[in-house]
Amino acid sequence: MQLGIGTYTYGWAFSINGQTTTRLFTENHLLEKAKSFGLNLVQIGDNLPLHEFTADQLKDFADSAKKNDIQIEVGARGLTAEHLDRYIGIALKLNARLIRLVIDQKDYEPGLPVIINIIQNALRDLEKHHITLGIENHDRLKTSEFVQIVESVSSPNVGICLDSVNSMGAGEGLEQVVKALAPYTVNLHIKDFGIQRLPHSMGFQIDGRPAGKGMLNVPWLLENVSQYGRCQTAILEQWVVPESDPEATIEKEDWWAQESVEYLKNYF
C-alpha cells in the first residue's frame, strides 16, 4: 500500500472559508509538500475542483507531477452520470488510476437504484481505461448501503474509499465500519481523531488529531484493510482544530502533516 497526501491533508489551506490569508495552497504546493515528505502520491479532492481547471492547467499539473515522479489521484463530489464521465476524462488527462467520489452534494442525495445505475453505465469506460472508482463512505448512507452498491455493481473497478471517521456521522463506530467495508476498500483515508466530553458534560465533541496522537489504531486499521489485497493507496487526511487566526491555522495544519507523515512512514 502506498502512502500519500491530499488536498484534505490541508483542508484549511485549500479553503479557508472566506477568511483573509495570503497562504492558500495550489496543486503545485501539494506536489512540493509530497516531495518534501519523500512521498510520490497526491490525491486531489473536491476542495480543489479539477473540473474548473482549463485544459492548459490540467496539462501543466500533469507535467509537473510527472517531472517530480508523483502519481495523481482525482476526487469529486456529486454522483451524476455527467459528472462521473467528466472525471473519467480528467483522470485520463492526469494519468490517474483512481477516482475518489462522494455521492452527495448540496441539494442532491440520490437513492440506491440511481447510484447503482449511474455506476453500471460507466463501467465500460472505467474498465477500458483501467480506472478504479472509489465511493467514499460519507455520513448519509449506512455501511450496509455502501456494501449493497459495490456488490450490485460487482466490478473489480468499483470499490470503497474508506474514511476512518466519516461514518460516525451516520451513527456507526469504526470497528463496525471496517469490518463491513474493508473487503471492498480500494483507497484508504487515514484520519486520526479524538472524542472528549464537553465542559458542561452534556455531550461529546469529535475532532481531529495528528496521526498516532488520537484514538485511531493505525496498525489495526492497516492490517484489516490490507488483508484483502484490494487497497493500493492510503491518503493522510486531517481534521485540524482551527486557531483564531487563519495564518496560524495553516501553520498548525502543516505541523500536524509533518508529524503525521513521520509517524505513518513506520507502517509503509
TrEMBL record:
Pfam families, A to Z: AP_endonuc_2
Superkingdom field: Bacteria
Protein name, entry field: TIM barrel protein
Domain Xylose isomerase-like TIM barrel: from-to ranges: 31-264
InterPro entries: IolE/XylAMocC-like, Xyl_isomerase-like_sf, Xyl_isomerase-like_TIM-brl
Record organism: Dyadobacter pollutisoli
Transmembrane segments: none
